[in-house]
Structure formats: structure tokens, C-alpha cells
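Sat 14:20. Reprocessing the chain from the morning session after the first attempt stalled halfway. Input below, unchanged.
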Amino acid sequence: MLKIWGRNTSSNVQKVIWALAEMKLPFERIDVGGAFGKTKDPFYLAMNPNSLVPTLEEEDGFTMWESNSIVRYLAGKHQNRTLEPADLQVRARAQMWMDWQLSVMGPSITPVFWGLIRTPPEKRDPAAIAAGKEKTVVAAKIMDAQLGKTQFMAGNDFSYGDISVGIMIYRYMQLIPERPATPNLDRWYAAISSRPAFKEQIAVVPLT
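Finished this time. C-alpha cells:
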């Protein structure tokens, strides 16, 4: 059975376990990182020199890190068309949104998440939180515009392009209640959050 090293409160770990649940692939998740530590232990650094989570470890000893890369690898290996579109252009757009999550949406919402969830009130930086909220709203509007054209991020079918940004919007909905109207985004989020794999792996984990 393949192993996923990383705590389930990590957004990057959540991408991988959501994808695995969508593909109905059995896996063992092992708590490391955060309060669990161990990411600086020699055995872990041998798998992931970044000392970050998640790390994939397969039965034959193959290991890799970087959450989006892990998701793409697993979908490709198992030829799972639920996640990896067969059409090359649709697949490219799905991967584009995964990369956009890393370059735009993730950096926008991270100061908000860290400021409101992982920082005591007396130590928070209101200006950084406000700036993060503003940037996140801009990013959400970009998604809303795309979702006015297609049912899902890359086209009219769910794909791994929805997973990476879906994890971010799970946080957005909770951290920025004063957000502007985004009817297309709301429709899409209702669809992805009703998926059994999302309910099983994501919705049950509080923001911590």
C-alpha cells in the first residue's frame, strides 16, 4: 500500500488525499510535520530534502514530493480520466490552474490563513491580513470569470485542476465571509464540496 507522509491539516497533503479518494486508491497516511515533527529526521530528509509535507512513498520504494506533481503522477500512472483529462488541451488547462494555485491563489490567501488561524490575536498583523484578503478576492474573481464559461476549471468535467484551487476555496469561504458575490464560483464550490471524496477527506478537517 502506498504511503502519504504528512498531517491532514496541511493544504498540500489534502490535495493528495482528496485525489486518492477520488481514484479510490487505498493508502496509508502518516502524521508528520507541524506538531508531529519528524520532517527534519534523517529518514524523512532522505525522502524529502525540503523537510516539508507531503511525501509520497510507493510500495517499491519510489518517493517524490510536491503535492501537485504527486497528484499528476498518480493520475497518469493509474490512467484515471476522472482526474486527468484525455484531451491534451483540457489537460493543459487543468495543469495551468494547478500552477496558478501555486503562483497566485496560494500566496494570496496564505497571510490570511496564517494571520487568522495560526497567529494569536495579540500578534496578528492586520495590514498583512487585509492585503491578503484583497489579493484573494481578486484571485477568486478570476476563477469566477472562468467558471462563467465552463462548469469546472479546465472544462465541463471535474479534473485535478479543481482539486488544488478547491482546497484554497475551502479556506476562502471560511476566512473571508465579507467576500463579494461570485455566483459562478459558488455554484462550482457547491458541486465540488458535495463530492464524496471531498466530504470524506476535506470537509471533516477543521482549519488549524
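The CA atoms of residues 193 and 199 lie 7 Å apart.
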